Amino acid sequence: MNKGIYQSLVQRKQNQQKSFVVLVDPDKVDDHKLDELIRLASESKVDYFFVGGSLVVSDYLDACVKKIKSNVDIPVILFPGSPSQITKHADALLYLSLISGRNPELLIGQHVVSAPAVKASGLEIMSTGYMVIDGGAPTTVSYISNANPLPSDKSEIAICTAMAGEMLGMKLIYMDAGSGARRAISEMMIQKVSASISIPLIVGGGITDPEKAYLNCKAGADVIVVGNAIEKDPTLIKEISAAIHSVPLSKV
């Protein structure tokens, strides 16, 4: 099975190159909005698209991915909220295990159910330790997952959870404050988690401006994901991309 997307993430981490992901929720875009996102992403040198949502109720997922793929060469990675959010037209899939919660269905249950379809999809599968961090407001992901988020001021819990995920064989760690979070994950928590693992660290949720994206990268995030802020103001793509790609190399 192709492992090109994961290898690109690892290589970028090794080269200290920060990556910018535009998150597209199929429920919140139509052809016109998607055309604008694709144009801005291409002009701004966005590194990846994530497509998915905690609760996708429309039938636009397949067409959404196909439209992106037919217009740009930016890799499309599925960010599924349920086993039904799979399309063979993407490049890869984040196989999410909610390691911050204690809901067995989202730790392994839904994976057992979805395994045959995921295997048959031909997608590059990237096992991902998914950690929901308290962002100061109830979010769809916390409601759907029926799991409490990790406290935002308890970095030691986040550190141990991320370390456990890596030692269990996860290829990525994704810390998410959730769509619509009132506050982003703190730089202190990002720095401490980043220092405790060797695999790529993805950070999303509550990032609404270029400065926050830049500071999160400087703290140790390898990949920044922005969705909600861009839904409100797509022109932020250019500024956030420039900020992320301007982060200097750290001194060894």
Précis, in short:
With 252 residues, this protein is of the alpha/beta class. The protein is built from 10 helices and 8 strands. The chain has an 8-stranded parallel beta barrel with strand order 1-2-3-4-5-6-7-8, surrounded by 7 helices.
Write a concise keyword list for the protein shown above.
252 residues, alpha/beta, TIM Barrel, 10 helices, globular
Q: Layout of helices and strands, plus pairs?
A:
Layout: H1 4-14, E1 19-24, H2 31-43, E2 48-51, H3 61-71, E3 76-78, E4 92-98, H4 104-121, E5 124-132, H5 140-145, H6 155-167, E6 172-176, H7 187-196, E7 201-204, H8 210-219, E8 223-226, H9 228-232, H10 236-245
Helix pairs in contact: 2-3, 6-7, 7-8, 8-10
